[in-house]
């Protein structure tokens, strides 16, 4: 049996980040990955035509500018370079209108004012009122162990911004938008920043605070140059360069437990690895606790709570296109910047559209009320396609388990549904004709689950982002500090605070807690 100080289950970005912090703290660290490569959702592949790079599961990286690991690990020196598109987001309207959100607050307000001077003023006021608060309070909280509710209340009650933040935390995003804004298209564009990459729906009660977070623009939507996999490669090179070991094709089948303490792992085929100090799991909660630990090693009340942990309410149906030319939208006659929007809203033009789409999702219907998240990566990183060519992506929120036929039905309908999504985009960008599409490829929620087994039910956020599963309640109060009932077994994945997306927080927080428990030198604080 091979001996290591620390064994990490899962080589996604959180597992890699944790591994980097531990190996630099002096632990002999092993990462075990089921697939042939590390990175998890940081996947970039030539799934259409050689030379056309497609970011399959992760693309909008909104927190790189505030991610401690990016600086601590010197990832930019390892070729993880980012570009922040000046036009951060936009909504194209069927009537030919458009609204765009820019890195520049002035330009954003100018665009909003064309539809609503009132909303332009409200947007600026919310941005200016909350930007400093978000930078000083909310962003650091994303990268710190979650505090019990009483501790949060005492701190937030001490300032007017904090009190208003607490009040918004008792409302839904839709409620907050209704209070501050009047134009339905402005509301729809702000709502568009919630499901991807944050996993939050418009009516999740108690999550209204995400609205000032979005409007404050302290998180910058950015693209990883060369494809999202470049970030995974940088994390791997950093880990390997400091003495870490990562093994692929090693699917962990069991966490070895002796007298209530994690002692190592066993992989499919029977090979065992000994952990002298700790085991950490970066995979999903239910797989870790129910399958790898086993119900027999836990109290039944705790097992029941884990079983009741809610998975994502929606999944993503994605379409990847190799194009002769970039889409040109009819709305560009009104606002030319719409053609260069990084995150493009197609079809979710009013809050009612969100209600209609999510009603279909919640009923398990194949959505016919399409509302899509679109982008053309090559507008911002031309090297992701041959010269003069482009790639494009469509992400459409859908249910994993279809009422008519279950998840297996996706295998039979995904090509037809792909064409439906393309046709929807074509109604806004008429040049997106069949002769301009060199090749197309669809990935269904079932495809996601098959490829990335920790994304059960095609859920890319590894647990629903509802009030009862955020902050100190994510995934459960008993697990909020990343420790488990099994001694020296830790969680370190997106099922923990602060949740999914390429945030890189769970890996860092797990490292902080492990360092405290095992007396490690916190080199990153020096």
TrEMBL record:
Superkingdom as given in the UniProt entry: Bacteria
SUPFAM superfamilies: FAD/NAD(P)-binding domain (SSF51905)
Protein name: NAD(P)/FAD-dependent oxidoreductase
Source organism of this protein record: Candidatus Desulfacyla euxinica
């Amino acid at each position: 049996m091979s001996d290591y100080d620390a064994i990490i289950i899962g080589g996604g970005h959180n597992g890699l980040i944790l591994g980097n912090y531990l190996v630099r703290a002096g632990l002999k660290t092993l990462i075990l990955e089921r697939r042939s490569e590390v990175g998890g959702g940081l996947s970039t592949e030539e799934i259409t035509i050689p030379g056309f790079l497609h970011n399959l599961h992760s693309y909008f990286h909104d927190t790189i500018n505030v991610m401690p690991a990016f600086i601590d690990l010197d990832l930019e020196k390892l070729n993880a370079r980012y570009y922040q598109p000046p036009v951060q987001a936009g909504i194209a309207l069927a009537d030919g209108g458009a609204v765009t959100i820019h890195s520049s607050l002035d330009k954003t307000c100018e665009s909003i004012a064309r539809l609503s001077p009132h909303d332009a003023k409200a947007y600026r006021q919310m941005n200016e009122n909350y930007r400093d608060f978000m930078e000083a309070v909310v962003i650091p909280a994303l990268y710190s162990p979650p505090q019990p509710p009483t501790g949060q209340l005492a701190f937030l009650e001490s300032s007017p911004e904090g009190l208003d933040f607490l009040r918004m935390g008792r409302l839904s995003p839709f409620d907050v938008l209704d209070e501050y804004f009047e134009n339905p298209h402005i509301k729809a564009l702000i709502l568009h920043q919630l499901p991807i990459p944050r996993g939050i729906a418009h009516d999740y009660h108690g999550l209204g605070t995400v609205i000032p977070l979005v409007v404050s623009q302290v998180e910058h939507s950015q693209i990883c140059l060369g494809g999202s996999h470049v970030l995974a490669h940088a994390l791997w090179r950093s880990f390997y360069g400091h003495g870490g070991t990562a093994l692929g094709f090693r699917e962990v089948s069991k966490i070895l437990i002796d007298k209530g303490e994690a002692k190592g792992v066993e992989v499919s085929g029977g090979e065992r690895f000994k952990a002298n100090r700790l085991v950490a799991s970066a995979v999903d909660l239910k797989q870790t606790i129910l399958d790898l630990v086993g119900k027999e090693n836990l109290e039944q009340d705790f097992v029941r709570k884990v079983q009741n942990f809610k998975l994502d309410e929606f999944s993503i149906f994605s379409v990847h296109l190799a194009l002769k030319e970039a889409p040109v939208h009819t709305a560009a006659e009104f606002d030319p910047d719409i053609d260069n929007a990084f995150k493009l809203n197609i079809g979710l033009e009013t809050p009612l559209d969100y209600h209609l789409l999510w009603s279909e999702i919640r009923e398990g219907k194949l959505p016919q009320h399409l509302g899509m998240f679109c982008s053309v990566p090559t507008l911002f990183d031309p090297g992701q396609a041959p010269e003069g060519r482009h790639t494009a992506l469509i992400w459409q929120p859908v249910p994993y388990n279809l009422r008519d036929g279950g998840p297996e039905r996706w295998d039979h309908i995904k090509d037809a549904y792909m064409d439906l999504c393309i046709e929807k985009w074509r109604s806004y960008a008429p040049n997106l004709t069949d002769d301009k599409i060199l090749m197309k490829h669809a990935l269904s929620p079932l495809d996601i689950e098959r490829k990335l087994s920790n994304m059960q039910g095609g859920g890319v956020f590894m647990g629903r982002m509802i009030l009862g599963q955020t902050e100190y309640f994510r995934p459960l109060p008993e697990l909020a500090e990343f420790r488990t009932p099994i001694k020296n077994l830790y969680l370190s994945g997106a099922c923990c605070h602060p949740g999914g997306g390429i945030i890189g927080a769970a890996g860092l927080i797990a490292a902080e807690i492990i360092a405290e428990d095992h007396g490690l030198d916190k080199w990153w604080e020096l």
